[in-house]
């Protein structure tokens, strides 16, 4: 019965992942913190993904503006273009696109790196050398992704808005000053706070799933590829699920 | 279905060699339905080289991973220097691991680090107080021991299989362990390099007076380095004796290993 097998595999996997996450909180966050390694990870993770996030953010802001313009023109409200684009980018598109790109870039590299360390017994070698791999490898990476994604999102949003400014300027003329004044007037604290808060969860999801998949990589080069791949797929899906939960939650809190 | 044939070696013969360093009693380990070790017993004495023979998948790696605490047995005792490894907390494990060296089958060198960083890793990570000068000195001594003085700044990916094995051996020995566990040290190497690794293992063992458990399929290697050979079969210690004793055994299952 493949369906029953699949269902039970799904629950097995979910259970194991929950156990892994529990282990992260109970063992990974104990003292003798690996501060040096954490900074090294923050640097590589932020540095590696920034160019890509910057580029895609810029194009997205530009294209979004160009696409929205005709609709607004037909209602005669093209002066509202900066407001529309600003809200769309800051509240939803910026955080989600940044997180998806981040999952593709960083989730896969964590999955592949830890996967190959697992199958070549480097993780065992660390443990034998008096190093807790949950602290040295998992905690540092998960904290780094959790801390870096919000930062990258803020930078990505800014670059996106700049792209939008260029987009507005293609068919009409605004100063950058006026454009950003319009954008920020329409955005309130309750737009920005939930949007940035959810990115911490996105970052955590990307990190913990990359590590989980890497640690459970099966032997052989294929196994490493599979864990990198499934880390990206699973964290991308989880990003949307978290996004859905986040919007429900902010609505409940009346923050919209 | 099998009972251990303890060929000749009597306990009193071994006591002359040194006090027991590793004592394994009634060890059981299984993964799901796959029973790997069932009532396995073994004693290793001071300065003794014990070679473990066994088919691929017999549980040899599982056995030595239990000894160093990477795997937890289902039941049984593993006394290393009189202390039971499966019952240890992480701090006690870290401490006993400074006395046990482990050479991984695939070397397990950290491929994101240089050779020097690989060797420094166990020194720094066991949270021992060492000055930079002492660390440098230990690293160069370790590299000299394996005859690879000038490789400190190279990456593992730049080295050949035999060199990687030597570096891994240097990393294993850097903390001057009293017991060393070797997982197939010559598998995958050419015959000439294999003999070099054998000689290196013997030389270093003489120099530092270590005891060791060596897993091997390579009968030349076994002949060169074994004080005692045991055969792991169906989860038990099926035979135990010197190389010559096992070689001359009439038992079919033992003979297989010597017929290659
Ligand atoms: N971590 C593990 N999880 C599940 N099964 C394992 C694990 N490690 C080893 N095994 C199983 O235990 C058996 C013995 O493995 P091993 O000790 O690696 O064999 P070998 O004697 O070749 O070194 C094999 O059947 C292997 O599949
Ligand atoms: Mg093995």
Structure description:
The complex is a heterodimer of chains A (256) and B (260). With 256 residues, chain A is mainly α. Chain A has one domain. Chain A has helices spanning 2-28, 35-75, 81-119, 122-128, 133-171, 176-186, 189-215, 221-252. In chain A, helix 2 (35-75) packs antiparallel against helix 3, helix 3 (81-119) runs antiparallel to helix 5 (133-171) and helix 7 runs antiparallel to helix 8. Chain A is elongated. The mean pLDDT of chain A is 92. Chain B has 260 residues and is an alpha/beta fold. Chain B has a single domain (19-255), classed as Rossmann fold, CATH 3.40.50. Chain B is 37% helix and 25% strand. In chain B, strands 1-11-10-4-9-8-7 form a seven-stranded mixed sheet, with helices on both faces. In chain B, strands 3-2-5-6 form a four-stranded antiparallel sheet, with helices on one face. In chain B, helix 4 packs across helix 5 (132-145) and helix 7 packs parallel to helix 8. The longest helix of chain B is centred in the C-terminal third of the chain and has 18 residues, at 191-208. Chain B is globular. The A-B interface holds A 32, 116-117, 120-122, 124-132 and B 65, 68, 70, 90, 94, 97-98, 100, 102, 104-111, 121-122, 125-127. The complex binds adenosine-5'-diphosphate and magnesium ion. Adenosine-5'-diphosphate (ADP) binds next to strand 3 and helix 2 of chain B.
């Amino acid at each position: 019965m493949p369906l029953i097998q699949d269902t039970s595999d799904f629950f097995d996997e979910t259970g194991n992942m929950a156990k892994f996450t529990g282990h992260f909180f109970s063992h990974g966050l104990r003292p003798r913190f690996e501060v040096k390694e954490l900074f090294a990870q923050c640097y590589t993770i932020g540095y590696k993904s920034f160019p890509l996030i910057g580029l895609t953010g810029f194009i997205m802001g530009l294209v979004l503006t160009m696409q929205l313009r005709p609709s607004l023109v037909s209602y005669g409200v093209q002066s509202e273009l900066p407001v529309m684009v600003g809200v769309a980018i800051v509240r939803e598109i910026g955080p989600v696109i940044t997180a998806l790109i981040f999952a593709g870039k960083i989730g896969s590299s964590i999955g592949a790196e830890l996967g190959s360390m697992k199958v070549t017994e480097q993780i065992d070698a660390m443990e034998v050398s008096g190093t807790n791999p949950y602290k040295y490898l998992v905690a540092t990476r998960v904290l780094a992704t959790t801390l870096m994604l919000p930062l990258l999102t803020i930078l990505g949003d800014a670059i996106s808005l700049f792209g939008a400014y260029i987009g507005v300027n293609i068919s009409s003329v605004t100063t950058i000053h006026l454009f950003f004044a319009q954008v920020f007037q329409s955005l309130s604290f309750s737009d920005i706070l939930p949007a940035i808060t959810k990115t911490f969860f996105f970052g955590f999801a990307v990190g913990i799933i990359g590590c989980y998949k890497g640690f459970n990589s099966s032997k052989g080069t294929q196994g490493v590829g599979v864990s990198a791949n499934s880390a990206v797929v699973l964290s991308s899906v989880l990003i949307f699920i978290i996004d859905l939960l986040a919007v429900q939650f902010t609505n409940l809190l009346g923050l919209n | 279905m099998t009972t251990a044939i303890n060929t000749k070696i009597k306990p009193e013969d071994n006591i002359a060699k040194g006090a027991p360093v590793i004592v394994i009693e009634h060890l059981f380990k299984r993964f799901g339905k796959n029973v790997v070790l069932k009532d396995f017993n073994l004693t290793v004495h001071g300065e003794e080289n014990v070679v473990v023979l066994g088919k691929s998948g017999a549980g040899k790696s599982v056995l030595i991973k239990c000894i160093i605490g990477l795997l937890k047995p289902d039941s049984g005792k593993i006394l290393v220097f009189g202390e039971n490894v499966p019952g240890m907390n992480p701090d006690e494990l870290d401490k006993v691991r400074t006395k046990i060296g482990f050479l991984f089958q695939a070397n397990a060198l950290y491929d994101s680090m240089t050779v020097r960083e690989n060797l420094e890793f166990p020194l720094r990570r066991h949270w021992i107080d060492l000055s930079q000068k002492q660390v440098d000195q230990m690293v160069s001594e370790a590299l000299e021991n394996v005859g690879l003085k000038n490789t400190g700044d190279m990456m593992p990916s730049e080295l050949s299989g035999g060199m990687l094995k030597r570096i891994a051996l240097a990393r294993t020995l850097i903390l001057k362990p009293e017991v060393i566990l070797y997982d197939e040290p010559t598998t995958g190497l050419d015959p000439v390099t294999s003999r070099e690794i054998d000689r290196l293992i013997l030389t270093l063992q003489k120099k530092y007076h270590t005891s060791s458990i060596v897993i091997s399929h390579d009968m030349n290697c076994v002949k060169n380095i074994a004080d005692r050979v045991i055969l792991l079969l169906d989860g038990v210690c099926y035979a135990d004796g010197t190389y010559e004793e096992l070689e001359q055994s009439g038992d079919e299952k033992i003979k297989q290993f010597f017929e290659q």
